[in-house]
Amino acid sequence: MTMIRSGLVATWRSVRNTFRLIFRTWSGRIALPIVLLHLVLTFFGPLIAPYSPTAMPESIDQYQNLPPSPQFWLGTDQYGRDVLSRVMCGAGSLIATAGTGALLGIILGAVVGMSSGYKGGRVDEIVMRVMDGLMSFPTLLLALLVLFTLGPSRFNIAATIGFVSMPAIARVVRSTTLSLKNMEFVQSARLRGESTFYIIFRELLPNVLPVLGVEASVRFSYAILSVASLGFLGLGIQPPSPDWGLMISQSRRFLVVAPWVALAPMGAVASLVIGVNLLADGIRQATRMAKEDKHE
To answer: What's the predicted TM-score (pTM) here?
Structure first.
């Protein structure tokens, strides 16, 4: 436990320094407010939403597909529900599911990639061939297959996204590990008789973290699109709970008469993906700046 705790402390210091450098990049300064806004909606959306996201008015015809107004800032949908409230409350389910899936994929990919890269030899060959086999399946098709078998639920969606994103993350982490394991600080730990777990968590993980941070940002954006796509296909969060992908799917019939019903969740998905991608670019720049500072 002490070994893992010391590794996590070193990892936390690396994360803190990386975020300080992100604030120095233009993409990071743009991305962080966007991502922060979506995180606020994730945790406090149901509390600050002006109306209930699922309740329908007694007279649906009177409130059906109303355009944006001071009363309904983003208009209403085909059932008379406030679109703004549904978008605000739908952020939590999508971001939580996508974030859990991406985090699971990052953890699995990091463990598999670092272990395989550090061990090398036949173990590395076998593990990487398995990863290549998993990567040969189209991501969305594999996710659909799993969800058709297990049924749509938040846990199944997150687990599926984590599983299908693991191979690509493992390959990136393995490549970085191969370039690190022959360096002096790893060799010194090996000569001291440190265990494999100590070397992986204490020596390799803090140095792999910047690359892993970039990969996490990219995979999170893919996870957002995957969750939205599954919701669009009817395999995401089930109605009447608000889900951005499902909202886009249900509003297709009303694009001509009430385009705001589809544009609102589409804009929410697009802004979140753009913010996460800009954050990934900021992490890349911060990593480069950290390397330049070390050389100086």
So the answer is: 0.81
**CA–CA dist 187, 171 (Å, integer):** 23
3-state secondary structure of 91: helix
Half-sphere exposure of 33 (CA within 13 A, CB side): 4
Question: Judging by beta carbons within 10 Å of its beta carbon (0-12, 13-18, 19+), is residue 79 exposed, middle or buried?
Answer: middle
Say if CB 204 and CB 114 are below 8 A apart.
Answer: yes
Q: What is the pLDDT of residues 168-195, one digit of tens each?
A: 899 999 988 888 888 888 888 888 877 7
Amino acid residing at 70: P
- b or e along 114-130 (b: 16 or more beta carbons within 10 Å of the residue's beta carbon)? bbbbbeeeeebeebbee
Question: 3-class SS at 280?
Answer: helix
Q: Report d(CA 46, CA 43) in Å as an integer.
A: 8
Q: Which two tokens stand for residue 19?
A: 């975020």
76 backbone dihedrals φ, ψ, rounded to 5°: -125, 165
Cα–Cα distance, 275 to 224 (Å, whole number): 12
Local structure of 82: helix, strand or coil = strand
**Of 85, 105, 103, 83, nearest in space to 95 by CA:** 103
CA angle 52, 50, 266 (to 5 degrees): 80
- What token pair was written down for 130? 């398995």
pLDDT digit string (tens) for 235-274?
777 777 888 988 998 888 888 888 989 999 999 999 999 9
- pLDDT tens digits for range 117-156: 888 888 888 988 888 888 887 777 878 887 778 777 888 8
- Whether 4 shows a pLDDT value over 70: the answer reads no
SS (H, E, C) 41-72: HHHHHHHHCCCCCCCCCCCHHHHCCCCCCCCC
Which residue in 57, 108, 112 sits closest to 81, CA to CA?
A: 57
Instruction: Please give the pLDDT value at position 101.
Output: 92
